[in-house]
Fold:
Amino acid sequence: MQVPAPFEYARATSVDDAIGLMERYGDTARLVAGGHSLLPMMKLRLANFEYLIDINDLHGELGYVAVETDQVRIGALTRHRELLESDALAAVLPIFRDAERVIADPTVRNRGTLGGSLCQADPSEDLSAVCTALGASCVIRGSGGTRVVTMEEFHRGPYETAVADGEILVEVRIPVRERGGSAYEKVERRAGDWAVVSAGAAVWLDGDGLVADARVGLAAVGPNTTGIPAISAALRGRPPSEELYAQAGAIAADSCDPVTDQRGSADYKRHLAKELTVRTLRRAVARIAERG
Amino acid sequence: MTTVQDAGRLTTFEDNDQKPIGHGRMLRKEDPRLVRGRGRFTDDIKLPGMLHLAILRSPFAHAKIISIDTSAAAALPKVKAVVTGADLAAQGLAWMPTLSNDVQAVLATDKVRFQGQEVAFVVAEDRYTARDALELIDVEYEVLDVVIDVRQALAPDAPVIRDDLDGKTNNHCFDWETGDKDATEAVFAAADVVVSQDIVYPRVHPAPMETCGAVADYDAVEGKLKLWSTTQAPHAHRTLYAIVAGLPEHKIQVISPDLGGGFGNKVPIYPGYVCAIVASIVTGKPVKWMEDRSENLISTGFARDYIMRGEIAATRDGKILAIRTDVLADHGAFNGTAAPVKYPAGFFGVFTGSYDIEAAYCSMTAVYTNKAPGGVAYACSFRITEAVYLVERIVDCLAAELGMDPAELRLKNFIKPEQFPYTTKTGWVYDSGDYEPTMRLAMDMAGYADLRKEQAEKRTRGELMGIGIAFFTEAVGAGPRKDMDILGLGMADGCELRVHPTGKAVVRLSVQSQGQGHETTFAQIVAEEIGIPPADIDVVHGDTDNTPFGLGTYGSRSTPVSGAAAALVARKVRDKARLIASAMLEVSVADLEWQKGSFQVKGDPGKSVTIQDIAMRAHGAGDLPDGVEGGLEAQICYNPSNLTYPHGAYICVVDIDPGTAQVKVRRFIAVDDCGTRINPMIIEGQVHGGLTDGVGMALMEMIAFDEDGNCLGASLMDYLIPTALEVPDWETGFTVTPSPHHPIGAKGVGESATVGSPPAIVNAVVDALAPFGVRHADMPLTPSRVWDAMRGAPQPPI
Amino acid sequence: MQVSMTVNDVEVSEEIEGRQLLVHFLRDQLGLTGTHWGCDTSNCGTCVVWLDGEPVKSCTVLTAMAGGHEVRTVEGLAKNGKLDPVQEGFVQCHGLQCGFCTPGMLMTARALLDRNPDPTETEIRQAISGQICRCTGYASIVRSVRWASVHEAQAALDATSAPESDAADEAKQAQEVSS
Structure:
């Protein structure tokens, strides 16, 4: 089995302590939580750091799912398994449970975290698509204080986020509006694989049953997780229907930039972008009705 | 999305603990240590002063080595040695023979010929330091053009890979043919119906969960080498090391400890083993080499990689007349196939399948490419996976062409029971078979007629459901000495049985378990013959110092060859016991009756002696009959007279999501006929495992390369193996057609399911896609590739 | 650096490198070779152990991360030499062949039954979906876990009914004596 190059291990006792350690060690240091993105890369020696700052002890501070009246706040150190198992979260944002069922595998989900996934910013990573579909914001803390950025601002490119050196993502906030539904679907070649394509959709209806807002986030269709404003624009004010979903699907296919690789051809991925957008929009709307 | 049928909660279980004296369901003797984590696998071995070896491998598929600077690596603290190809060449050790009479570099000297080829090695005090030291070795390469597309290997301007071979000016490896070319051409020319199909069996890899490795411990004072290694053939390896390393054979001990799976991956001698031996000699310490998973996938024996064109000729009413095939075989950079020497294409000659036909012919060209060596691995029964895939795919293509049900087409053409022993048009003598009952049982278990009804109904709604059938006859148990040898070593296997004074016994085997339960099944074989309970019979295997010579475990040969040896040696012991019993009971031998565990006087059941009594008498005081020596043991070397020919009928049901093209295996019905069944629990396990291989190969496994020769299947993230969510609950059945020439009629079953399942699954997918006019689609049938087929443009994988 | 943790109920304290992976600590330093490794990319699951009672892939956990925590390996499943019901189930239902993936499967199975004593076959397949077996084809592993579930439920029933039957016996004896 491959093993990492030498590094020093440090353990943070609090968020402030973690920030202090990052300031001390500079860009030769990296935070590690679940470690299931970082450690494999280090074992293959694709990434090398002189210091690893273990923030797992911050779970007390940063591991929570707080469902409030108009928002859901999720701590960055919340484990995938906790997101999957949270009934409170599933009741209001079922997209999380849909996605967590197909993220990695149960054993990895015991360790991996929301923050870790978002900060890794792999273009095939599912929670970024989920948070994009939900219009989430990211709360980042550094020695200078705390700031909040939108998902669009947070996700800068493949493996690149708005979190600067010396900063740590602490929380993700998701607005909760009435008459909302959400869903996620992933096509993978095999359980636990990265997505060939995934899509997450969130829909809110107004009092007349028309679309008040709709958002779709895709994964694995290009260098960035794609939120698609054109879909939101096309759907607002319209009644939900198969024709509407098909229209959204067509926009999704046109808006993405997939590459042909071992997971599938670019054409197939475009097709999936369309197909999964349709399916998740349909399911999201159905869930609004189910919740009454 | 993976949706799995909820099959509920099982609450009743098969009684696997029937405590048979002989054949029957019996719990495994291996399990007590393995479930406690007390197995002893090669990486578990720790010796005092042991050092660790790591191998530097080429990042390029084809490149000249200009220079290697090992000084920084050698200077790293805790590094004990750094060795290059030049160092080995000085000792005549840089090259070694392969199992196919080719040569392979232990460490590259002039150039590297596949990505991942061994270039240098480091020996250090711990594995982390060894890995660090690899980074410090500086190799200057001159990158050369590559040969990756096998169809271009013989192009006039193709770079020559094997310029190490005198006078080699192209990438041609060998040509091979079998059957009657002219007779076959005549039949094709006159036939009503001819169907032709290009069929690729992509490169795949056995990928056992335990990678390959070795611990070498050379004692310079004794001049003795002790080598633990992941080998399926310890005796064959020992003899080869003696020849390659120039060490006297009686001074080499090869021990195969517990193996975490083999599947043919652990048959070849890999450069890493030789490096470990050299390192131990050089450092004077035990040296361990365990490859990591990327090394396993990128450099050890791959499987398949046959580009086949299949043709089938038939009458309009479905009588198959002839089968013809032309094959382009990719053998990688060195010809390392592990097959009997006279069979460079293994047993591919059984591509005529289970059908009574008039003519057959195969032409094959094998070439070198800039990829890892191998070819025969992953439960292929020496290329029978390729042969069965070919015939079962083109038979289905014929069924589609004729508009005939694929089950009916097969039933119409099966070799009939009265035709056995049956000599095929390529010269193979099938020992026994009764195909129709096996096929009908599978169809009954599947509810075949109902499935076709369901399919018809679903098709009206645009739902995609497929039913795939595969019927196979395979040939295992290599093999007769007159025909079969590997590097001059005959494929007969020895067996020794000794009964102790208190009636317990030990049987020593030449074959090597990698999980198939030999410690249990061989005790059962012996128990069946001499009536000593299996719990009282110890099975010893894997150590050349205390087991008889034999060629090892692969090609499902353990039961047909070593199992025969075990039965026969037990009968030898029983025959001797009979003589002793006659003296003890003071009757003639003719008056004795064997009652599985005791000899009785005919007509006088009160007068009997148990085998335990006899064992004590054999070792004790008192007279023995004239000519009978003390002790109760025997030894045998069994030369099989023929291979054995298991068969099976498999039916697979798939559903395909029309929107995403994802394939779900809903059901799989497998009816196997492996002759006499020694332990049905273990047989079912062997079948289940092989069926899973089939799902893997059919739907997701492939070792792919990019155009520069970079291996794209070098990790388990890229080389996908099925999990529990991709496979159904298997439905298995059996028929029994004993082998007439095997002492207990057993045929072997280890590879049957790997052989028979890929065509069943591919046939099911193609069947599901029939509404799209699909006649063939190549493995692996990933969603993207199924989608291509649905749109009328199925792509070969290479 | 120094690290201390509890492994199979025993406190251990050892000198390690920061980069050492937990699987190597367990195997090479503590000699607990029941836990295996089989890949480089956290896919195979032959390294699964418990960290604070939860299955984790020990090839993707630093030894240092486990410092101050509790680790349990397959060697810590049997109690007083008696096999855990999941171990017994694997033996009874042929849930292992080569045994290499088995320790990891056992740890996951035990954790599953601790949380979900009567899982469906689907739930069992999902629980082991991060671990690869090349030998068994998984159906027998599913059966093995169901065997353990059924037999644990039966044992629990037997345990709860025993005191009552003892009391009933005493009452019966008392009656016989008096009559």
